[in-house]
Amino acid sequence: MNFSKTSLAAMRAAMLGGAAVAAVFAPVSPVLAQDTTDDASCADGADSSACDSSEGVSEDAIVVSGTRIRTSEYDLANPVVAIDDEAIQNSGVTNLTDFLTEAPALAGSYNSNDGSGSNAGIGGVGLNLLDLRNLGTQRTLLLIDGRRHVAAVPGDSAVDVNSIPIDLIERVDIVTGGASAIYGADAVTGVVNFITKRDFEGYTLRAQNGISEQGDGNSRFVAVTVGTNFAGGRGNIAANFEYGHDDRLLLSQREEFGPRFRAFYDNQDDLNDDPNVPDRVLAADVNYLDSSPISAIDTDFDFLPDFLGDGSRYIPGTFLGSFFESGGSGTPVSTYGGEILPEIDRFIGNLLFSYDLTDDIRFFAEGKYARVDSASAGQPTFDFFIGVPTDNPFIPGNINDPAVNAFDPLGIVLVTGRDNLDLGRRGEDNRRETYRGVAGIEADITDTVAFEISYVYGQSDNTVRQTNTRYNDRFYAALDAVDEGEFLNGTPNGNLVCRSNLTGDATSSSQYVTGAFFFEDYPTLSFTPGANSGCVPFNLFSNQQNQAALDWINTTAVDTSTIKQQVVSAALSGDFGDGFSLWGGPIGFAVGGEYRKEESSSNPDPVNTTGLTFGNALFPETGSFDVFEGFAEMRIPIVQDQPFFYDLTANGAVRVSDYSTIGTTFTYQGGLVWAPVPDFRVRGTYAQAVRAPNIGELFAPSNQTFAFIDDPCAFDSRDNGSDTREANCIDLLQGLGLSDAEIATFTGDAGTSLPGLSTGNIDLGEETAKTLTFGAIFQPTFIPGLILSADYYDVKIEDAISTPSATTLLELCVDAVSLDNAFCDNIDRTPVGGGFDPADAGIVRGFTLQPQNVAAFSTKGIDFSARYRKQTDKLGTFNFSLVGNHLISLKTQGTPGAEIVENAGVRGDPEWQVNFDFNWTLDNINLNYGINFFDKTLRYSRATIEGDPDIVAPEYLKIDSKFVHDMQLRWTTDDNMSFYVGVNNIFDQEPDVGLTFYPVSAVGRFFYAGIRISGDQLGF
Q1: Which residues neighbour 153 within 8 Å (Cβ) at sequence distance 6 or greater?
Q2: Which Pfam families match (predicted)?
Q3: H or E element: which one contains 500?
Q4: Separation between Cα atoms, residue 457 and residue 224, nearest integer Å
């Protein structure tokens, strides 16, 4: 490959905050000037003094992410981790997020496991979103060449990593710590900057195919990149195309997730809560105790099933608490499992163009189109407590008998529960299309000062097809079947029809349907009752249905959304030369301004806005904001080459932003680098960063939502929270009119999924984060090739915007210092009296989920790394890399004054993470071996374990550590053709007991092979 470099290209990178730096041989490594062997500084035509062929040391100023000033990495005060393109290819991973999560700072990112089946929220199937420090995807800023990228999630700022081309990446920089002063809002926890190849000349072709050991989970990838110079080298044009496909992987494809799958359930031998007996035990063959795919039927009014829909007796299993039993006739819980991975197809095309208008002025432009198709299915629809009229011809005869069915005199047969697998699993078939264009001019003003102005336009068009969406009104009309002759004249004729077809209205069915749906609750229906309605009877007591009935009941709801982003940026950067310098050299600077506008609109399918479908009623969401910003940055080389002051450099940055939504914000950053000797450097930064509320947090309408809750005020949960929970719960329940005896036995069991609302909050303000980092780099000259580094970080976020789940909302209400808080105001409980069922007293009957500026987050830890590179004459080149993190604390506080929750060491937040890589190259052979590790984590929250230390047996309190080994072997021919094979998860580590993709994915051992062909010239 030839990558032509000019001074303008380097200056352009300086303006963007990222240019070509050294090739990084390990997957994750600190960025250091010592790694510049064979990099841009040593390219043809570069100053030979920039290269040290023995060790590849360059003292030339280059640019890394985290600054807009062209400088040496030695002067960079904040830690940056870099991942080069070779490391990505050595991993064999074709999903960038799966690879990047091996970096400790990104381990909590949202990957394909999170975006599959029942795990994904509405519109979330197939998404891959980065999350620095596990503090939220909305607090991680993703950049392409230092510029913003349009979001993929309506109302949010999160970018789908699937839209980024893998083979066009030259390097990925991970800047941890607040970077708002450099890059603007959303960089509260840091920046992930994807640096792409520039001035590409020649061609590369790569193809790869992989499959799991069990013959599933296939992954295919093809990429082509071509480029050429023209006009005597003044111009360059390059194009890139990539296609990637990941097969859908179902839980049902793995035997271990079938009926024998074990998970934790209530121990029925510990009802008196003996502290020496675990509260929860492992159980297999778990079923729901009150439902069946062919209906579970209650005939004696105890709300427990006695028969199945085929007329056979319902055989109860061993009760496991709540709605579960081991064995028995109910629906297996394993059938509800969704998918391990969604199906994903990625099509990405990029076109890059640049042209030197003069020796000092360059025009550049780039365009991208990305289409990501993803599909996954989750749970089916389900129903509880349906009263079916006794004249329904599908009811088994032995059940439709007053002597058997106590309900028969009421004219109904009671179905306690049905899991509608015959209606198909609800799923999503999504398409996300991304358009992005960049154009700009960069110019050398003097030998040391450059100017750039650029414009970025991005648009994301999303189509979410919700498959097997059930019309509730049609379902209930279809299950209310009658024999036409018997209904009209009392003489059966065998013609089974919907009752509403004969009566011409639907309200006649409401007296029979005692479940969650009543026709008269809705002003309109999705059909017109009568002979021409199209209604086809549905047999509630069988799983063999008339296809016409399924087609009439189900529909595909299509939600659409559009996100637009426009950014105009201009900056002047360089140094003041000898006219304004200190003992360490000229003072560097960058100053500029930026205008950004963000727009987001989502349009749910009309069937979803009516509330007639199974699920949440959604409403259109539209919002926008713009922001004007000014920024300045300085690098001050105070002194160099003095005793005990080999280098002392300070830097600082400020940014003022004026938002149309929240007004003016101010961010700043300051840092210092001190090297008493060449081998050892100390660095530190302090920054204030902000995050403005996104469009969804501000403008989201009141959308319907449903949730199953665990009430923290239940008698057996009041000791599992803060010190104030029990007293607050007693005060709350007493205020509703419950007696002391009722409070003592209060379970909070609503018995069903509860309706609620989710809405935005126009009164939100910005979040503010204070970030401190300090560390050291040791590179002994007496051990060439060795680099050691360690950095401590401390991040505190105040006035954090938090939207809790329904259960968390309840916990925040009673775990606060008092009941006088915003969370309690958003909960509706049933009072005693007032015409309500006395059995419902105190139970939650509604809630509103709304973001508030009330939370606080903080995290502390140490990032550390060790790298060693050794070149030998006969044995080749050896590279060792160890990158790790020690998480000291990760705390959340729901409201001011509430109890602080420590999450470090809890599932998803390991205290120790280490990524080790060994790479060996000898002639045309390259071997890469990697190990990814994190330690054991608690299965339950610390508060739960402290309040209930015997929740499980001691050996299950912690989830097994992650210890995954990967290997790749590559052979390259003399004409630049590479063949490689590899295996990931060599020792086939599996998810821990009771889990499906933690600490590792359930994919298991994975094999792949590929080929890469490259050339310096296109040949025409």
Answers
A1: 123, 127, 129, 160, 563
A2: Plug, TonB_dep_Rec_b-barrel
A3: helix 499-503
A4: 25
| 866 to 96, 666, 786, 790, 931: CA distances (angstroms) | 24, 36, 7, 9, 14
**Cα(326)–Cα(264) distance, integer angstroms:** 11
Question: Residue 440 in 3-state DSSP?
Answer: strand
- The Cα–Cα gap between 992 and 988 comes to 12
Residue range 63-248+342-377+429-467+559-697+766-801+853-1015 forms a domain whose CATH class is mainly beta
Tell me whether the omega of the peptide bond preceding residue 780 falls within 30 degrees of 0, making it cis: no
Measured distance CA(602)–CA(561) in Å, rounded: 4
Q: Which helix (H) or strand (E) holds 755?
A: strand 754-758
Cβ 25 vs Cβ 7: under 8 Å:
no
CA-based nearest residue to 214, from 1001, 1020, 1013: 1001
Domain ranges (residues) in the chain: 63-248+342-377+429-467+559-697+766-801+853-1015, 710-749+804-849
H helix or E strand, kind and range, residue 727 = helix 725-735
Question: Which tokens belong to 279?
Answer: 């509260």
Distance CA 786, CA 778 (A): 8
Angle at 972 between CA 967 and CA 978, to 5 degrees: 75
Question: Model confidence over 384-419: pLDDT tens digits?
Answer: 888 898 999 999 999 988 888 888 887 888 999 999
> Can you list the residues of the chain whose pLDDT is less than 70?
1-64, 70-75, 506-523, 751-752, 1019-1020
- Asked if residue 967 lies in contact with residue 982, where contact means CB atoms within 8 angstroms, the answer is yes
Judge residue 199's burial from the number of C-beta atoms within 10 Å of its C-beta, 0-12 exposed, 13-18 middle, 19 or more buried. buried
- First and final C-alpha spacing in the chain: 16
Of 380, 538, 337, which Cα lies nearest the Cα of 467? 380
Asked if residue 551 lies in contact with residue 443, where contact means CB atoms within 8 angstroms, the answer is no
839-857: pLDDT as tens digits: 889 999 999 999 989 889 9
What are the Cα distances from residue 379, in Å, to 149, 428, 504, 715, 1002? 34, 11, 33, 31, 19
Tokens 């009811």 locate to: 395
C-alpha 170/C-alpha 87 separation (Å) is 10
Dig out the tokens for 292 from the structure.
């069946």
Phi then psi for residue 85, to 5 deg, are -65, -35
Percentage of the chain surpassing pLDDT 90? Answer: 69
Q: Any idea what DSSP says for residue 90?
A: H
